[in-house]
Amino acid sequence: MSSITSGERLILASEHKEKANIESVDATSFHWNDEFDQWRARLQGKWNAAYECIDRHVDEGRGDRVAMIYVNDDIHEEITYRQLKNETDRFAVVIKAKGIKRGERVFTLLPKTPNAYITVLAIIKAGAVAGPLFEAFQEDAIFERMYNCDAKMIITDAQLKSRVPSNKLPALEHVLIDGEGADKEAGEYHLQEELESVSKESAAQVTEWVDENEGMIIHYTSGSTGQPKGVLHSHRAIVQQKKTGEWVLDLKENDVYWCTSHPGWVTGSSYGIFAPFLNGATSLINTGRFDANEWYSYIERFNVTVWYSAPTAFRMLKAAGGQELIERYNLSSLRHVLSVGEPLNPEIVKWGYEQLNVRIHDTWWMTETGAQLIVNLPNQTIKAGSMGRPLPGITVAILDESGNQLPRGLVGQLAVRKGWPSMMREIWKNEEKYRSYFPYDGEWYVSGDLAYQDEEGFVFFQSRNDDMINSSGERIGPFEVESALITHDAVIEAAVVGKADELRGEIVKGFVVLHPDYEESPALLEEIRLHVRGKLAAHAAPREIEVLKELPKTRISGKIMRRLLKEQA
Ligand code: WT7
After folding, report:
1. Is the CB of 480 under 6 A from ligand 1?
2. Fold of 11-23+242-464
3. 82 CB burial (10 A radius; 0-12, 13-18, 19+)
């Protein structure tokens, strides 16, 4: 592999181990409408994402391919596309038999096991809208989402069911329990028993053909303020999910793909369910929390080739140990590694390159966008610190507060021109919120992120709109300061916020988690401060640094909760 450093920036030329899928495509002349038209011509009005994910492979002779490898301690199970078809067919029959109609919402609350995937796909096959919940959600979060959605049914298990407040959910008609522990007197059903009663004939006819714009899946996303919003995606999203699986994930026939996210959040559905299955890939499904040794051992044991994870996970792997840890495992199967969810620090790209011997490809998108929009393609150069460039067919702009396009190099609102297939269909029961994403004549989708684009089109994330710091009139993006903080050996993780200050408006305040080999002292903190000052600028160096045992993070996505830290500051 070749790398150069331009100024402080690490630049990694592409040197993939196999020819990348995208190389055969003329990306400059690509239009999503043409792609869409091909799907429309092929499907002739008979859309169903679950059919495209599963049954199509069986119908076209790929039924014996392994769809899922499930690993959980000593359990190791393989499920083929044919088995996946049979399972989702039967499940879909049960869902329909309980009276669930097209477009009605069915939720799932399950740990990351094959049934978390099978249930979501079965709901979609039956024409209903799937509402997958993350397994760590507690009662209030579950209530809010199911109530807002008028959920009619939930599939959960004996361990998690106590968090579902059935008596407070008037629309809820059915509770199905996966595995043992259904309380039949309370009206719960035992899922496996229901499945046994399904006839072959009914299963053969079960796929509900829908229109491309009908609801498929709903994910709730919490903005920095207010109630979580229900982001509804429709079946047409698969057009883009399939293509980005091919181009960005670079999925090929014999790949073993591992997406570390849970299907209860959008990375775990768009790129944990749809993209890999649409492309006929084999997915590794792991249960349980993060553990560095276990994670490395999965890569070795299952020969993972394509790996999609998040900066938090990479930072934790880095903190868990250097070469001596990594050398215990054979990670040579890894061909393509990707990241999403929060800014990917240049230091982590460097670590990946030097220690794991891979380029980590950052990708940018949102729950609302349904699929990747800004990406690092496998056959293109990576600039560490940039999220990459717009996907073929996608137009990005940096707008000022009046919606005018800013020249290259200036920081402003990151916006995307409307018209990509996987764009959300609606915000559930909140038309006004939906419209608020299109403040300027409806042409631009405004993301709420601040960024700039360089001359070559690379997009550099600065912060969420609300997180930008203004100190003595200077705008300081927390991400850049955080990235500088973690280049100091003592710092494992960092979060930077603005702290109110009479003189300067705000000052930069840093929260850090120290490496266990280092002990907190005023001298160390001053050293870290000067380290950042030397890397960035005096005004960007944190005036205050506070040491925390860990950073507060959202349970779902592992995003640093800067708002909480800001209150604390
Ligand atoms: C927000 C969306 C959709 C996948 C996961 C997040 C931040 C996402 C990146 C990235 C910097 C990123 C943005 C975005 N974000 N990817 N590569 N670099 N920031 O989904 O929960 O809807 O959050 O996550 O702020 O707006 P989400």
Report:
1. no
2. Rossmann fold (3.40.50)
3. middle
Whether ipTM exceeds 0.85? yes
Residues 269-303 have pLDDT tens digits of 999 999 999 999 999 999 978 899 999 999 999 99
DSSP, residue by residue, 235-287: GGGHHHHHHHHHHTS---TT-EEEE-S-TTSHHHHIIIIIHHHHTT-EEEEE-
Q: Among the CATH numbers 3.40.50.1000, 3.40.50.12780, 3.40.50.720, 3.30.750.24, which is that of 45-235?
A: 3.40.50.12780
Residue 246 contacts residue 21 (beta carbons within 8 Å) = yes
The C-alpha atoms of residue 124 and residue 54 are separated, in whole angstroms, by 12
Can you count the helices (H) and strands (E) in the chain?
A: 19, 29
| 531 alpha carbon – ligand 1 mean position (Å) | 28
Contacts of 111 (CB under 8 A, 6+ apart): 135, 157, 160, 287
Ligand 1 neighbour 91 (Cβ under 6 A) = no
Distance, in Å, from the CA atom of 113 to the CA atom of 109, rounded to the nearest integer, reads: 11
- Nearest Cα residue to atom 5 of ligand 1: 341
Q: In the chain, where does the domain assigned CATH 3.40.50.12780 lie?
A: 11-23+242-464, 45-235
Token representation of residue 500: 């109110």
For 120-165, the pLDDT digits (tens) are 999 999 999 999 999 988 898 899 999 999 999 999 999 999 999 9
Which residue has a Cα nearest atom 24 of ligand 1? 341
Domain 469-568 has CATH 3.40.50.2300: no
Q: Is 155 touching ligand 1 by the criterion CB < 6 Å?
A: no
**pTM confidence score:** 0.91
Pocket test for ligand 1, best of 308, 337, 461, 562 (most atoms within 8 A of CB): 461
Residues of the chain with CATH 3.30.300.30: 469-568
Q: Ligand 1 centroid to 159 CA: how many Å?
A: 31
Top mutation candidate among 244, 366, 463 for ligand 1, by most atoms within 8 Å of CB: 366
Q: Assess whether the C-beta atom of 412 lies below 6 angstroms from ligand 1.
A: no
User: 340: CA distance to ligand 1 center in Å?
Assistant: 7
Give the Å distance between the CA of 261 and the centre of ligand 1: 14
Burial of 434 (0-12, 13-18, 19+ CB in 10 A): middle
Strand partners, 382: 12
Task: Write out the two tokens for 204.
Answer: 């053969």
Assess contact for 258 and 335: CB atoms under 8 A.
Answer: no
Distance 564 CA to ligand 1 centre (A): 18
Phi, psi (deg, nearest 5) at residue 269? -100, -60
State the pairing for strand pair 66-72/282-286: parallel
